[in-house]
Specification:
By secondary structure, the chain is of the alpha/beta class. It is built from twelve helices and 22 strands. Helix 1 crosses helix 4, helix 7 packs antiparallel against helix 8 and helix 9 runs antiparallel to helix 10.
Length: 404
Amino acid sequence: MTLIVQKYGGSSVADPDKIKNVAKRVIESRKKGYRVVVVVSALGNATDELIKLAHMMASRPSERELDVLISTGEQISSALLAMAIQELGYDAISFTGVQVGIVTDSLHTKAKILKIGGRRIEKALGEDKICIVAGFQGVDVNEDITTLGRGGSDITAVALAAVLGAQVCEIYTDVEGVYTADPRVVPDARKIDLLSYEEMFELASAGARVLESRSVEFAQKYQVPIHVRSSFSNKEGTRVMGEMSDLERVVVSGVTSQTDEAKVSVLKVPDKPGIAAKLFGAIAAEGIVVDMIIQNISEGGTTDVSFTVLQGDLSKTMEVSERIASEIGAEGVSADEDIAKVSIVGVGMRTHSGVAAKMFEVLAGEDINIEMISTSEIKVSCIIRQEDVECAVVALHRAFGLGG
């Protein structure tokens, strides 16, 4: 029998009725002759509530203990879904990340998968059981529980699909697929039927929250087809797979925005070799991902270095940056949380000139100032003021003709 992996997000298992709905969908797939492995997120906002509880106990909770705490959310939803499927007359079994052998590094709250055993799942599938796996979690070589970061259940699902040789990894969420922009901001945003891995990765890393960017990277590496669809309808969603033909390429596929980043500036940094390596090496050692980096022209032997990180990492980033600034003789460190990133993504950018220039012209036409710019072959991103982000998304969506 063909194997499929299905992942259901928090909104899909937010309450008992929705869990029962998921159970019925899983059984429908089983009736079609598929062997099914299901990965689930925590119920609704359960993870956020657990994090709040942790911060009621300590101003800066231990990341090890935080992982022990927040991993429980997925265990609850996996067990409840197994019960719901059993109630409908089908054999199901739930597993934690530890039980299925998901081994990670020891970077708590942002761990990366090193290997997956998979033998317990294969044994259960051989016994004709539906397997339910708690997403988002694993165990390190010290047998400590770890979590994979926000969107980690996507990574669990794609990784399992790769290891088990699944035909497809279906990502079920509360929207019908990936759109050309956030429909809440742009009413005429259009659902995209087909995306390449590269486009989906850039959209995800630029703020599209339908898929976690590392899961797309994993899917591309192991050529796992992904189908993003709604858990509340049977409509076709968005398929993510290998490179498309030239005829299927569009210049710009989508516009995304991200408002949870912050800009950090290290002021009056001595302009000499090794300084940037020392700063960003220390930041990387803390597991902090830096997005954009810009260095001003040197004046009087010093320069300012600015970069962006997620707001959730800002406190730790400031601690590290202030320590390094003191060591290298910089003047100080400042932070700005009132920024946003707006991006355009499309594989057609490779073969079309003037796309970035058009983006800049559109933003200028809306009197929106650009503070930082980052580009890749298929993406252009700009840092702007947070208050301008919705205007920017609407204007760019219109200018590149993405409306439905």
